[in-house]
Amino acid sequence: MNSTLEQRHAVGGGFLRRLNFGTAAVSGLIFGFAAWALSHHFLDDSGQGFADQVTVLTGCGWVVGFLLGIGALTGPGKWFTGRDQSHADEMYLAGKDLGRKRFFQYTTDHKVVGVQYIIATMVLLGAGGILAMGIRTNLLTPGNHFVNQQVYNGFLGVHGMLMILGLIIAVAGPWANFILPIQVGARDMAFPRLNALSLWTLIAAIPLLLGSLAIGAMDMGWVTQGPISDQSGIGFDLFAMSIITFTISTTVAGVNTICTVLTMRTKGMTMERLPIFAWASIFAAGLGLYAFPFFLVVMSLNLADRMVGTSFFIASGGGTGWLQENLFWLMGHPEVYVILLPAVGAILEIASVFSRKPLFSYRTVVGGMAGLCGLSALVWAHHMFTTGWAPTLGGPFMLTTELISIPTGVIFLVLLGTIWRGNIWMKMPMIWVFGFIVNFIVGGITGIYLSDIPVDNQMHGTMFVVAHFHYVFVGSVLFGAIAALFYWFPKVSGRFIDEKMGRISFWLVFIGTHVTFISMFVSGLRGMSRRYSSYAMIFEHTNFITTIGAYMIMSGMLVLLGAVITSWRSGEPSGPNPWGGKSLEWMVPTPVPLENFEVLPVITSDPYTYGEAKS
Amino acid sequence: MTSNDNQKNNLRQIFWIWLAITAFGVVVGIYATPRLMPRAASNTMHLSVLTMVVFTVAAAPIAALVYSVVIVALTKWRYRGEGVPPDGPPIRGNSPATSIWLVVSTLLTVFLLVWGLALLAVDNGAQSKSQMTVNVTGQQWIWSFGYAGTQVHSLDLFLPVDTDVKFAVTSKDVVHGFWIVQMGIKVNANPGVITTTAVTPNRVGTFDIRCTEICGLNHAFMVTRVHVLTKKNFDHWLATQPATN
């Protein structure tokens, strides 16, 4: 008996050995059901409607149960009872010698967390994409009723939120976890256990969002505006719970990213020698730390209005929807740059490597990103020009909004300067970078129209706005995320993503994006409001074209998904440095060993020394 | 060929491509933009369309610059050999280029701002003078209009042409967006608050009102019409309406 105990101690892990995604899901369901049964029993008898309270408590039960079931609270529990993790426990947590099992567990190795984030991103974007197809199918013809209006409105809100959450993590999740610590010369993130916590908190939030659609009756769109969110059915309770859970996850992840870059850099890795992706990641994470508390607050106040009789946003109780809109957009505009900056960072890395040239004007682009972060916190009310709130502030907010085109222009300058007279190597990552450049110009310029108040008075709330921000999110951020996937996939799997399928998917998504959103611009210019479930005959042709384009994007994304899955299993082997990159992630072997470096490297220059004499 | 000649060649190519794309953008801006938008029924809308045209023309050279560099990169600078390409020229920055870029983008931003503020001043001027007021009420999912100083209410909006009209907008339930499509004015209808906007219709005809904030099941059907009548016809219409409340 003693020897087996000792053996067990030597392999480490203790109770955690029994826990994985399956036990987490079961435990989440049990806790959720228990919370439902208890709250139902104690709250429903009074004869009042307590559906909101019951739903929120059920959601809390799910989150707590899920995190208990995955083992997120085991470490703190041990600490609380005065025992600490042994070395063997830590090795078990890092996934040592666990093979594939480690991807389904509470694993602290940043590379495993990175892969788990890739899967989570695919789930979020895939589910959001399916809903997008539902929306576009409903709008194929003027009076189409693919789904009824109630379901359609639910699709709108959940599509929007799935895509927003998916894009927030699309670059920062996989690559700020997998690549960033190696890039700065660290053995792991600063807080490996918090890293696992942020991932599994995110996973706990996803079923809540999907569940909100299932129990439905949501009319509020993704912006969850004032009184309409109060009118919505119990789906909204899970929707808000999901966002609250997500903000906790993102805050933990953001702190971790910043601490990793600030404190874990290897010898000689000064801030001026950081790869630009690391700069972009800490700017995005820092901006997220400013923005997402507003998200948490606005959802909490909204739930309070529904559950405990407050009236923050209810006019008849002295509240105001304008408060909701202000809080939401205080989050909502910085969030655009939380999404955009990591993608820009990845794009700049790729542009340098595939042009075989140093990054153009490193300090200018770091300054530009800092400018974007600062200004993005001061522009939120441009989403509210037509709400009637504070008309006197129109001019100042128009000023800050138009100023943001200067740092955005800096990003273009640096991109163009980097490819200027380079030896452009048109492999898959670079192809998506060119797609990004072409699309982002459209997204940027149409944003300038909307910053002008007289134009916004016409265009706000129309399909023009929808097309504008889809050019930014799909045409730019998604293209950047896919470029990053093609670029770093060989480091994850040791294999290339299939080039032929990659090219097919690029052309389908690229052409599809323009077909979809140019026709959507036209719908907006001609006067079609957004969030319509059906429309007048004059919008018939442009909407038909938009739907065809949306199907093209979907086909391209399915081809890409197929390419990723087949290449992961049986793609062409890539070796450790297939692109001839100079940043640290290309200097370690593939697959990257646990703790990344045998001996931590010493850095003598930034990773952009192309064409320069070796010192 | 020396690299200096190469550079000159590149710049020449970029210039011609830039010129062609700029010309295309200017033509599209001037010709297509006004035709894609509804025909204006007020000066406000006219200025919105004009702004769209001006901004498109101003943006054309910027987009053209980016696209011309992209085209030259894809055709002239592309590496067509096997394997990792050799290193390119180690250009770490170019202070004159960066400075010019910053100065030009700042000047363009100042232009946008001055243009926007000037138009905003025109709008605000229109708000301050009004010859009649219409009380607009949104509710799920209809608009109703009360004509200040009378007992008349209607579900279609009736306006006299060439008259400064002020709208006092509110909602009975959730937030709606009051938008007269061909007149370029929009303001939300918020419960418990009165928001205002103003317009001077300058064309007789029938125009569209659409809701622009999601307001529940029938958001897409919360539409009605504006009938702009001659002053004489409007007075006649108003006089023949029954008083309601």
Structural class of chain B: alpha+beta
CATH superfamily caption of the largest domain in chain B? Cupredoxins -  blue copper proteins
CATH class of the largest domain in chain A: Mainly Alpha
Helix content of chain A: 55-70%
The appropriate CATH architecture of the largest domain in chain A is: Up-down Bundle
N- to C-terminal distance of chain A: 61 Å
- Tell me the number of helical segments of chain A per DSSP (H or I, 4 or more residues long): 22
In the predicted model, the low-confidence regions of chain B spanning at least 5 consecutive residues are none
Strand content of chain B: 15-25%
Overall pLDDT of chain B:
93
Helical proportion of chain B, percent range: 40-55%
Number of strands of chain A: 0
Largest sheet geometry of chain B: 5 strands, mixed
- Over the alpha carbons, how many angstroms does the gyration radius of chain B reach? 26 Å
Shape by Cα distribution of chain B: elongated
Q: List the secondary-structure elements of chain A in sequence, H or E.
A: HHHHHHHHHHHHHHHHHHHHHH
Oligomer: heterodimer
Output the CATH topology of the largest domain in chain B. Answer: Immunoglobulin-like
Features:
heterodimer; A: 615 residues; mainly alpha; 2 domains; B: 245 residues; Immunoglobulin-like
Please give a structural write-up.
The complex is a heterodimer of chains A (615) and B (245). By secondary structure, chain A is an all-alpha fold. Chain A has 22 helices and no strands. In chain A, helix 2 (21-43) runs antiparallel to helix 3, helix 3 (51-70) packs parallel to helix 12 (235-263) and helix 13 (276-307) runs antiparallel to helix 14 (321-355). The longest helix of chain A has 35 residues, at 321-355. Chain B is 45% helix and 23% strand. Chain B is built from four helices and ten strands, in the order αααββββββββββα. Chain B has helices at 3-36, 43-75, 95-128, 231-240; strands at residues 132-139, 142-147, 153-154, 157-160, 165-171, 176-180, 185-189, 195-199, 205-211, 223-229. In chain B, strand 1 (132-139) and strand 2 (142-147) form a beta hairpin. In chain B, helix 1 (3-36) runs antiparallel to helix 2 (43-75) and helix 2 (43-75) packs antiparallel against helix 3 (95-128). The chains are: A mainly alpha (615), B alpha+beta (245). The interface between A and B is large, with 86 and 87 residues.
